[in-house]
TrEMBL record:
<dbReference type="InterPro" id="IPR013217">
    <property type="entry name" value="Methyltransf_12"/>
</dbReference>
<keyword id="KW-0808">Transferase</keyword>
<dbReference type="GO" id="GO:0032259">
    <property type="term" value="P:methylation"/>
</dbReference>
<keyword id="KW-0489">Methyltransferase</keyword>
<feature type="domain" description="Methyltransferase type 12">
    <location>
        <begin position="41"/>
        <end position="143"/>
    </location>
</feature>
<dbReference type="GO" id="GO:0008168">
    <property type="term" value="F:methyltransferase activity"/>
</dbReference>
<protein>
    <submittedName>
        <fullName>SAM-dependent methyltransferase</fullName>
    </submittedName>
</protein>
<dbReference type="Pfam" id="PF08242">
    <property type="entry name" value="Methyltransf_12"/>
</dbReference>
<dbReference type="InterPro" id="IPR029063">
    <property type="entry name" value="SAM-dependent_MTases_sf"/>
</dbReference>
Length: 252
């Protein structure tokens, strides 16, 4: 099964591709977006969930999104058409890191008032490269909203192997501030948000496989859901955390 197709199926019941509830998404956006107007860019926008909510919250806001999945972008376009905000939304297909570099090199205008990158640091090779890419396209005085994993408790060796070399929360914040960023707001995903995300991910994929038993990808989807569920419950559920930070530069 193509990984992008699998991701879309797994997020059918949780279009925010991160462990965050709707209320948390709205609070973070209200802290990150300008009160009226402005430009927002989402690097790794997926189905455009964050951008669609931003356009709904801020009159006159203009939004741009970048993602590698054409199917996800088509869903974002359709949702924007249905919401009546398609005229304020531009979507680009491409790798987030490559498109961010191209936008920075183009120097199109003064930059973006808000840059989002939530649960997409893998596209850049880590949190600090994400922040560097955001800095290059950010308008003076602008705001970055970034979301990434951290270790809530000391993980097992298997958990580190599954998910990667994250820091604890204090270490994560120290890395961010060490690069010239100041947190002005943050949200730590709750146990309910973390568990809801994982049950939705594995459940949506499992349900699709059971509803399409004759599909050639059905057995693989079942295996992927079971493997993900096993790794979550046995290896990283008790140590994994997710944080979203609203950041400003300490010096321009």
């Amino acid at each position: 099964m193509d990984p992008r197709t699998r991701s879309l199926l797994a997020h059918a019941d949780h279009p925010v591709a991160a462990p965050l509830g709707d209320d948390s998404v709205e609070r973070l956006l209200r802290h990150a977006l300008p009160a009226t107007g402005g430009r927002v860019l989402d690097l790794g926008c997926g189905q455009g969930t964050w951008l669609l909510r931003a356009l709904e919250l801020v009159p006159g806001l203009v939004a741009e999104g970048v993602d590698v999945s054409e199917e996800a972008l088509e869903r974002a376009r359709a949702a924007a058409e249905a919401a009546g905000t398609a005229h304020r939304l531009t979507l680009r297909r491409g790798a987030a890191d490559t498109e961010a570099a191209a936008l920075a090199d183009a120097g199109d205008g003064p930059g973006y008032d808000t840059v989002l990158c939530v649960a997409a640091s893998h596209a850049f090779g880590g949190l600090l490269p994400v922040l560097d890419a955001c800095r290059r396209v950010l308008a003076p005085g602008g705001t970055v909203l970034v979301g990434d994993a951290y270790w809530e408790r000391e993980p097992s060796a298997a958990a580190r192997e599954l998910l990667g070399a994250y820091e604890d929360l204090a270490g994560t914040v120290e890395r961010i501030t060490g690069q010239g960023w100041a947190p002005v707001h943050a949200h730590l995903s709750t146990r309910h948000e973390l568990d809801d995300y994982e049950w939705c991910w594995t459940g949506s994929l499992t349900r699709w496989a059971l509803d399409h038993p004759a599909h050639p990808d059905s057995p693989e989807a079942l295996r992927a859901a079971a493997a993900h569920r096993e790794g979550w419950l046995r290896e990283y559920r008790d140590s994994f955390g997710f944080a979203c930070f609203v950041l400003r530069r300490t010096a321009e």
